[in-house]
Design a protein that fits this description.
It is built from eight helices and ten strands. By secondary structure, the chain is an alpha/beta fold.
């Protein structure tokens, strides 16, 4: 049975998305269209390109994720240079290595730009800080004077994954000037709304996979200092838009996966912990599918 899939962001917790997708595929479902934000955009793009979820796991398991952290070369120690990089380059790491890796894996399936995929096969979310708006790629590229089908999918995924201050933002050059693009999770970490039609109906069943508890189980933020305030601010900003949407709809089509105990940027995970996160995703998906009615 064909379905559409929406995957949330969640950094390294994205391994749970892979586990959930494995169970969905095992149950005989096939993704027709996919959408995602940040880590969810990576999984969505690879599956859209033709990889199975097991193959996606193999790709990421073999990947040295710490190698994706590519700081600019400086003559001073990184511990000191990082403050300069954040100030002048707006991020600690360039993100070029990640984009190159993504390009290679997509090209291995004969996919490079959006027109290499069927229309509407893949959509990812990013945040345009210059214009203060959420952008859906490739759809909204026309606003920048760019032909959507000609745009690099790997570049779009990099844009959706550019965690503020961690990775340098992507500068999108257009006829209107330069726009600073960062992680889509800043404005919509779980774009479940993407597959709604104007009358609110869906073309086919949609399964969403969200790397957090349901909105009714959200833990209260502890705010006692400036660091905790920033963390709570980012979490609220990231989830508020999507939580409002979910609260207006039945959550019966969403697999909620807590995946607690893992940091978004814990890139040095051991293989055993990666597999454990995958198994958590599979378990929650299996439980969901047993009760899912569509």
């Amino acid at each position: 049975m064909k379905i559409d899939g929406v995957f949330s962001g969640g950094g390294i917790k994205g391994f749970a998305l892979i586990g959930a997708c494995q169970e969905i595929e095992n149950q005989g479902f096939q993704f027709e269209r996919l959408a995602g934000t940040s880590a969810g955009s990576i999984v969505a793009a690879l599956i859209a390109a033709g990889y199975t979820s097991k193959e996606v796991y193999q790709l990421l398991e073999e990947l040295d994720i710490t190698a994706m952290l590519d700081p600019r070369k400086t003559f001073i120690p990184f511990s000191f240079a990082k403050w300069l990089l954040v100030y002048f380059k707006l991020g600690l790491y360039k993100g070029n290595v990640f984009e190159k890796w993504m390009t290679e894996k997509l090209e291995a399936k004969g996919i490079k730009i959006f027109s290499d995929l069927p229309p509407n096969k893949l959509r990812v979310v990013a945040s345009d800080l210059s214009n203060g708006q959420l952008i859906v790629l490739p759809d909204d590229l026309e606003k920048y004077g760019i032909t959507p089908g000609s745009f690099s999918i790997a570049k779009a995924i990099r844009m959706s994954c550019s965690i503020p201050y961690f990775f340098e933002p992507v500068k999108l050059r257009s006829i209107e000037g330069i726009s600073i693009i960062v992680d889509g999770g800043v404005l919509s970490n779980f774009p479940m709304w993407l597959f709604d039609t104007e009358d609110g109906r869906k073309i086919r069943p949609v399964i969403g996979i969200k790397l957090s508890p349901s909105e009714y189980e959200h833990k209260k933020h502890k705010i006692q200092n400036g660091v905790q305030l920033f963390g709570a601010l980012f979490e609220t900003m990231k989830d508020a838009h999507d939580a409002r949407y979910i609260s207006k709809k039945h959550a019966k089509n969403i697999i909620f996966i807590p995946a607690e105990g893992v940091s978004l940027i814990e890139f040095d995970l051991k293989d055993e912990k990666k597999q454990k996160i995958v198994e958590i995703g599979k378990a929650y998906a299996e439980k969901f599918l047993k009760a899912w009615t569509y």
